[in-house]
Structure formats: C-alpha cells, structure tokens
Amino acid sequence: MTVVQEEENVTAGSIRVPWRIGTRGSLLARTQAGTIRDNLIAAGHDAELVVVETAGDLSADPVQQIGVGVFTSALRDELAAGKIDIAVHSYKDLPTAQDPRFTIAAIPPREDPRDALVARDGLVLGELPAGAKVGTSAPRRAAQLRALGLGLDIVPLRGNLDTRLRKVSEGELDAVVVARAGLARIGRLDVVTEALEPVQMLPAPAQGALAVECRSDDSELIKALTELDDAATRASVIAERSLLAELEAGCTVPIGAIAEVVESLDDDGRIVDELSLRGCAAAVDGSDVLRASVVGAPERAAELGRELARELLDLGARELLSTPEAAVSPPTDFYNSSPMENSQ
To answer: What is the pLDDT of residue 318?
Structure first.
C-alpha cells in the first residue's frame, strides 16, 4: 500500500481497514462482488470480500414461499450493523421499496440482460419437441414459455447454475432457461444454445445489473463508488423497476421489462439519447401476455416506467396478476432442494 492510499484510509487518527464487501457465498455472487473489489483496488482503494450466509441459501423452499428480498436482507442487516461496508446485489433481487438507511451508490455497466436457453444436443427453443421438459425458477419465464404455445412441460427448478446445467447434461431435463448474465460472469457462455430475444421473452426488471450499496451516511465511500456508476445502465434500471413498483408486484409474478438508451434524431436533426422501454404482464398459465412500450428522455426514466405500468394496467394487467398461482403451479416437492444462485 502506498503512502497516498494510507492517508486516504486514515479514520480518527488510525489506519482504516480495507473496505469490506459483503457477498453471498456462491460462485456467481463472489464473482460479481469480486469485480467491484477489483475495480476499487484498481482505483487505489483497499477492499476485500466478506461472505454472508442468507436465509435463501439455507432454505429448500421455492422463492414464492420464502419471500421477495430473502437473498438481500442478510447483506443489508450486516451493512446496517457495520459488519460490512458495501453490499453487492443482483439488482433484480432487491425489493422495490427504498430503504433510507442505504444508498445504491453505483450501478456498473450491465451484462446482456436476456434470458438464455441451455438445451440438450444444441437445440434452440423452436426445435424442442412437444412435451420436452424445460426447467426454470421464475414464474415470469414459465408464463412466457407457456404463452409461446410450444407444448413444453415447464418444470420448476432451484439450485446453483452448475446444478441446473447438470440436469441437462445428465438427461433429467431437456433444457433450462437462466439469465445469460450469470453464465457470462462465471465464464460459461459456451453452454448457451440460444439467447432468447425480448420478442420471445422479456427479462426480469434489472436483470443483468448489479446494485452496489452502502450506508447513506458514508460520504467517503459513496464518492468512491460513484466512479463505478454507468449512467445509461442506471436510467434503464430505474425505468424497469419503476414499472415494477407501479404495478405493485415483486419478482415472483410474471412481469418482464427491458430498457435501453439508444441514439435518435431530434426535430432539428441533432443526435440525442432516448430511453426505450418495453414491458409485459403475463397470466401464469400463459393464456395471455400484455405488451406495451414507451420512449422518452433518459432523465424521465422513473416517469416512463410508471407511465408504461399504467398503460399495462389499462390493458388488463391487474386481472392477470391476480390470477391464483396455485391453479397452474406444480407441487412444491417438484422443486430442487439446492439453494438458488442469486436467483439467476
């Protein structure tokens, strides 16, 4: 450590310990947090990972039963108690309600947010035969897969990414659908047989994005983390999650959204940035999928999300979202007993 770095870390007359970055213990979670650690170190700060065990890692129950936010609450408890300085979350795991104790100081550049199919024999989605067993952990994915009308047998699935991939390689399932971002971060894109385009399946709001969180009163750390923030990713995520919040829905209901900042021409022919947002709400049984889109200035991200949510509600989203899941969901004991890997 250089003298300059030591001076930066002096607190109350003593040398400050490295910033402690809280993470779940899975390979994916540690890899995600490791990128934040490496970026902070490259910027001249000292940082280290601290593994935190969560209730979601200990439970074999489906996410619908153990609750939204189960993968983030333990990290936030440690952050509030001062046992860690930074928490790194898969942003889509965070509850939509803000917690004033914390600040999301950085949303780094996003990985490709699309869902990915990993299928036997290199098959793409349209090549899977009717009755093929396809595993997924998300009602959103299951609903949109059913809506495609391919006659697939959708099997609820939990377990880390290796567990899910093994179910395909060992023949237990014909395919699984997971977040492409998770596979990219652990270097397993080689197993992807098809990246599912949004016209087939809209991803979860904030899928592929990380939320780097710290205490709201830690101005020094906020300043350091802000350097890792990506403005386009932040605008996209704000729009997607504003839609989710306006629909008063959590990550266990079939809602998809994707936003991106794109270049456009204004009335005077000048190049300007626009935020394009697409969203959907689906019946759990796949009998109906409502889709809508909106375009506007990136600085209106939150407003655009709320506007699109209201359009979906006008189209009948509330009725779709109130459909009883029990009528179409398989029994709980079909779920794999391994802990989920960052809900990817």
So the answer is: 85
* Whole-angstrom distance, CA of residue 169 vs CA of residue 192: 12
Chain position carrying tokens 């153990």: 66
Cα angle 55, 57, 62; round to 5 = 85
**199 CB burial (10 A radius; 0-12, 13-18, 19+):** exposed
230 labelled catalytic: no
Tokens 């019946």 belong to: 283
Beta strands in the chain (DSSP E): 10-11, 14-15, 19-23, 47-51, 86-90, 102-106, 115-119, 133-136, 153-156, 175-179, 194-196, 210-215, 255-265, 271-282, 289-296
pLDDT digits (tens, 9 = 90+) for 211-232: 999 999 999 999 999 999 999 9
Give the pLDDT mean for 46-55. 88
- Integer Rg of the chain from CA: 21
Beta bridge partners of 281: 255, 290
* pLDDT(189) > 80: yes
Two tokens at 169?
């390689």
pLDDT, tens digit, for every residue of 16-32? 579 999 999 989 999 99
Name the token pair of 256. 């998809």
Residue 216 to residue 193: CA distance in whole angstroms: 42
Q: Which of 85, 93, 115, 218 is catalytic?
A: 93
Higher per-residue confidence, 332 vs 26: 26
Give the Cα separation of 301 and 239 in Å (integer).
5
Average pLDDT over residues 197-209: 96
Angle, helix 301-315 to helix 231-246, in steps of 10 degrees: 30
Distances (CA, A) of 133 to 130, 141, 191, 226, 338: 9, 14, 17, 44, 19
Q: How many residues does the chain have?
A: 344
Which SS3 state, helix, strand or coil, does residue 147 take?
helix
